[in-house]
């Protein structure tokens, strides 16, 4: 079993390009193509469709990708376990994260972690809640930082209750108030984070029967804030996101208070790799309840 061939197949499925997939592991495009072809011959069916714009998975390819991810995952875990037994920790850690967490939490945690474990390479994937949940389910990441969603069965560690804030442009009639009643969103122009990237805001609107005038939608928090800043409407964004815009715009606490539960999630703590378990220890030590990162 040649694990590297499976890794090239997984990378090609992710990026849709054989050249990029090969380069990720030091192979030429022809080398990557030859590796994939040999696996297709062993399997007895085509994994990819080739086209001018790159490659895409066949229906049979779609069926085997989850199994290939599991094989690669357990091979990596085995290598890390053997290294740990021999007193060495090395390997790869794949982290999924909201952008706000990747900006405000991960740099300090990773810096401290890498001081102790320089031989563990780290790959960060940023995305919305739907993409992060899928990546965790499919084994594309080892752990994710995201908000807790109802009905999901991931193992998790709750890290912070992150309050939502009303986001207003300067000069808004309520800019001088101490807080912003949720019902004040009814009937006003509103910029909404796209469903699929953020379920939490949509859930707030539904739970409190709010009916704002959805003027624009965007999957990017930064775009939403920029639209508010330029007077195109108002919005709701989490406090951790707004740390990037300190001193800009107007933020007010919501009444009643609403928040999201930010957590570190894994498919199973029992099955987590040694590198993943070590990283989780650092996260637990370094993230404070107020959302700050302790220096340890």
List segments where confidence is low: pLDDT < 50 over at least 5 consecutive residues: none
Number of helices, where a helix is a run of at least 4 consecutive DSSP H or I residues: 11
Helix fraction, binned, reads 40-55%
- H/E element order: HHHEEHEHHEHEEEEHEHEHEEH
Radius of gyration: 22 Å
Mean pLDDT figure = 90
First-to-last CA distance = 42 Å
Q: How many DSSP E strands?
A: 12
Largest sheet: 8 strands, mixed
Shape: globular
Report the β-strand fraction as a percent range: 15-25%
Supply the helix-strand structural class: alpha/beta
Keywords: DNA-binding, Transcription, Transcription regulation
Domain HTH lysR-type: 1-58
Protein name: LysR family transcriptional regulator
GO cellular component, one term: cytosol
Keywords:
eight-stranded mixed β-sheet; two-stranded antiparallel ribbon; 296 residues; alpha/beta
What does this protein look like?
The protein has 296 residues and is of the alpha/beta class. The two termini are 42 Å apart. Strand 1 (48-51) and strand 2 (54-57) form a beta hairpin. The protein has 11 helices and 12 strands. Helices cover 42% and strands 24% of the residues. The protein has helices spanning 3-15, 18-24, 29-43, 59-85, 99-104, 106-116, 129-138, 199-207, 221-229, 239-242, 274-286, and strands at residues 48-51, 54-57, 91-97, 120-126, 143-147, 155-168, 180-181, 189-193, 213-218, 235-238, 250-255, 259-266. The protein is globular and about 65 Å long. Helix 1 (3-15) crosses helix 4 (59-85), helix 2 packs across helix 3 (29-43) and helix 6 (106-116) packs across helix 11 (274-286). The strands form 3 sheets. Strands 3, 4, 5, 6, 7, 10, 11 and 12 form an 8-stranded mixed beta sheet that branches.
